[in-house]
């Protein structure tokens, strides 16, 4: 859909100057700002954007923002929220002021993510096979065996090409010093890539001339790269690939259908697949068709009720046995979630050192592990200043932001930690970097993170950009869409 401004034009020069859009009154408020330095200078890469936008009227910029929102709704780019007692469908809000990352910064991020995925993949393989890292006590054995995401059924498993984490979304943040840090890893069913792709399409229509002049790396080939990855792990000529969704009521169903459509493959749910004759087969109007590769968007434990959760109604009975025999490929591999555990996250720098003999290029956020006595004592005594997270929650749930919580909430989380210290980590409250964001007819700073997407097939490819999530509520540090967040296009420069 073509985005068109509602501005009527025809203004005199004086009217144009008076009504022109401007960043003059924008305040960084002592936070690290992605667009401006502390003394108000424009950062590298934003020059073309600032120059062009300030040639427009306020009405024109606001009109483009509203047009982008209408386009999102008309294209059906929505997600479901279940936390409010009933399923609510919403658009994923977009703010049309992009986040720009210069090439030198991105090149370091790319190297760091490739290093991290290499090490995590080796770690998962080791955990389910020789367990050298556990025997050497680099990662405590009881930590793995007590993880909700450790699947004993995967012991001895060797996935195609020895790749476990084919698709990863790693969350990055910047603190006051402007350096990127890893906030968490998402390896089971990372979501949001469809919003990355659609945000770029919307910005192409909103500011086409700025994108053309600025030299922004493309992200539109993601579906092609994803399909190539899936075909690679099949190791068969012309494999049949499908996307497995939990169904239309899943919060990310739009993304599942979008990616299937973009790749030109079938979108299926558990009703469409059956194990027959030792293979996974898809029901079609012409009979059963053998499936070679499944991009699963359901959690590990729901995949096969015969092996994992017997109450699962969205899995395929018997699929795990077919997988173990090498007759179907799964992305991501079952068992990958063991590295999603937020307590395991705290050990990733040690994991990198153990397998690669290198220091982590992108550091973790400082993390306190509540299962460790000294760390737990510190967390309980300083919970008012910390962010506390449950080991296996996502989407901003199961989390306490100490400085913004009540005394009653502090007391509740202290009890939770004492009752089950294994299930919690804590981190300092970091002032996430900010990006100018449209609020009414002007801009204000809003906190952001960044989720780049990494594909591991024939090599490791980091998509140049990712989903910048923005906390649209003033002062909020929670960027998740289910908690009032939105998205921005991420421009990585050549």
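^ Assign residues to that structure.
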């Amino acid at each position: 859909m073509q985005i068109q401004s509602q501005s009527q034009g025809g203004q005199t020069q004086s009217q144009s100057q008076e009504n022109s859009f401007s960043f003059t009154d924008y305040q960084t408020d002592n936070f690290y700002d992605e667009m401006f330095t502390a003394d108000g200078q424009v950062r590298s890469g934003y020059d073309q954007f600032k120059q062009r936008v300030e040639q427009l009227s306020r009405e024109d910029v606001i009109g483009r923002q509203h047009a982008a929102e209408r386009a999102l709704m008309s294209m059906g780019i929505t997600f479901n929220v279940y936390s409010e007692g009933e399923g609510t469908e919403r658009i994923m809000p977009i703010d049309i002021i992009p986040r720009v990352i210069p090439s030198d910064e991105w090149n370091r991020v790319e190297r760091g993510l490739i290093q991290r995925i290499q090490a995590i993949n080796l770690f998962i393989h080791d955990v389910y096979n020789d367990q050298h890292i556990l025997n050497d006590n680099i990662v405590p054995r009881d930590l793995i065996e007590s993880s909700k995401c450790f699947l004993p059924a995967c012991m001895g498993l060797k996935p195609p090409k020895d790749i476990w984490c084919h698709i990863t979304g790693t969350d990055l943040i910047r603190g006051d010093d402007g350096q990127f840090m890893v906030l968490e890893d998402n390896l089971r069913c990372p979501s949001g890539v469809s919003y990355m792709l659609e945000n770029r399409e919307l910005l192409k229509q909103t500011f086409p001339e700025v994108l053309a002049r600025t030299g922004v790396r493309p992200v539109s080939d993601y579906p092609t790269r994803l399909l190539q990855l899936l075909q690679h792990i099949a190791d068969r000529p012309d494999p049949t690939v499908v996307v497995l969704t939990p169904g239309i009521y899943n919060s990310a169903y739009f993304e599942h259908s979008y990616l299937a459509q973009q790749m030109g493959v079938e979108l299926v749910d558990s009703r469409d697949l059956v194990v027959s004759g030792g293979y996974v087969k898809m029901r079609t109007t012409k009979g059963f068709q053998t499936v070679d590769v499944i991009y699963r968007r359901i959690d590990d434990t729901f995949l096969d009720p015969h092996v994992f959760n017997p109450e699962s109604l969205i899995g395929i009975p018997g699929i795990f046995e077919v997988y173990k025999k090498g007759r179907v490929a799964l992305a991501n591999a079952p068992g990958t979630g063991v590295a999603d555990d937020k307590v395991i996250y705290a050990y990733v720098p040690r994991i990198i050192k153990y397998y690669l003999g290198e220091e982590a290029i992108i550091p973790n956020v400082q993390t306190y592990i509540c299962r460790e006595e000294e760390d737990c004592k510190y967390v309980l005594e300083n919970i008012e200043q910390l962010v506390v997270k449950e080991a296996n929650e996502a989407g901003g749930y199961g989390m306490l932001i100490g400085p913004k919580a009540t005394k009653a909430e502090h007391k509740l989380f202290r009890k939770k930690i004492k009752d089950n210290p294994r299930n919690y980590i804590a981190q300092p409250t970091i002032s996430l970097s900010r990006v100018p964001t449209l609020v009414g007819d002007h801009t204000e700073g809003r906190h952001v993170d960044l989720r780049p997407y990494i594909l591991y097939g024939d090599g490791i490819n980091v998509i140049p950009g990712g989903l910048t999530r923005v906390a649209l509520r003033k002062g909020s540090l929670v960027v998740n869409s289910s908690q009032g967040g939105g998205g921005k296009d991420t421009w990585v420069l050549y």
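The first strand starts at residue 78 and ends at 81.
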